Amino acid sequence: MGTPSILWSITKKCFTVGVITLTVSDLFASIVPVRGASMSPTFNPKTNSLFDSLSDDRVLVEKLCLRNYKFSHGDVIVFSSPNNHKEKHVKRIVGLPGDWVGTIYDVVHIPEGHCWVEGDNSASSLDSRSFGPVPLGLVKGRVTHVLWPPHRVGTVDRKTSQNRVSSSSSASKF
Amino acid sequence: MGTPRVLWSITKKCFTVGVITLTVSDLFASIVPVRGASMSPTFNPKTNSLLDSLSDDRVLVEKLCLRNYKFSHGDVIVFSSPNNHKEKHVKRIVGLPGDWVGTIYDVVHIPEGHCWVEGDNTASSLDSRSFGPVPLGLVKGRVTHVLWPPHRVGTVDRKTSQNRVSSSSSASKF
């Protein structure tokens, strides 16, 4: 075995690892940083601790939910912004298709194929209250765990606002 | 070399081919059938010829356009339906962000991050005239060629309707 054969073998292995990593990241799960304080205190609570002020939270985003699109009230999802396809947002699902969601001035009906999202930090969140219901086709994944910083590692739980949302059915299947 | 080794080697090769095919299909191009007559006569013209009536057109959808999202008026795109994330539609881009598009009753402004799509077969097409502007994040690819049936193989050209659309700029970059 000469050197060219070794180099080719290494190249093939690197390429295969690269393609498999890409596929896993697209189809199964990936790790992304959360920017901004719109989901505080769930992500980026910005307390006075050293870790919190130094770096953004890293979360695990699972893509298996995109097989069936079975989301529940209170799920935290990653989606492409309706107004800017280059940006991705992380927000919590407050309303599912068919729901009626109460905002300050209005009660909005969520049409088929859409969801209503809001950030946990209501005062500082650009969400469905600004850009309206989000088409489910824009959803890119669901956040299941916080992976960084170490003292806040854990699962991301569902939080629902029962007093603001009127659901058409108790089961969230569609 | 025993049989288990041969089987393992074949399994590895099949797995690698499968992953690479999936990645190519997602990142570069794929071949899809076109259903329905909403893009007639560009696709599925349903003439009396044998091949036209037997099967749907197959078209080549390129995904490289999703790197930069530089679309032009007249491009034919594949996108997830805003009202039903499980469905994909094939329509032509009539309006880009910032344009004013004239419908029968109204003149619609296309907001940032959205496009206005219509089928070539105006009488029989469910498009932006029904479900409004489509967020660009829902676009899944651009149709470049017809691959089946053989007598209509060729490139898919841009067709613009200058008299109905007022563009904010001549360059379609965003």
From TrEMBL, chain A:
Parts of the chain that traverse the membrane: none
UniProt keyword annotations, A-Z: Hydrolase, Membrane, Mitochondrion, Mitochondrion inner membrane, Protease, Transmembrane, Transmembrane helix
Membrane topology of the entry: Single-pass membrane protein
Domain of life assignment: Eukaryota
The keyword Transmembrane is annotated on this UniProt entry: yes
NCBIfam families per the UniProt record, alphabetical: sigpep_I_bact
UniProt similarity note: Belongs to the peptidase S26 family. IMP2 subfamily.
Protein name: Mitochondrial inner membrane protease subunit 2
From TrEMBL, chain B:
Organism: Hibiscus sabdariffa (roselle)
Residues annotated as signal peptide: none
Record keyword Membrane present: yes
The protein, known as: Mitochondrial inner membrane protease subunit 2
Keyword Transmembrane listed: yes
Family: Belongs to the peptidase S26 family. IMP2 subfamily.
Gene3D superfamilies: Umud Fragment, subunit A
Membrane topology: Single-pass membrane protein
Species classification: Eukaryota, Viridiplantae, Streptophyta, Embryophyta, Tracheophyta
Keywords: Hydrolase, Membrane, Mitochondrion, Mitochondrion inner membrane, Protease, Transmembrane, Transmembrane helix
UniProt main location, coarse: mitochondrion
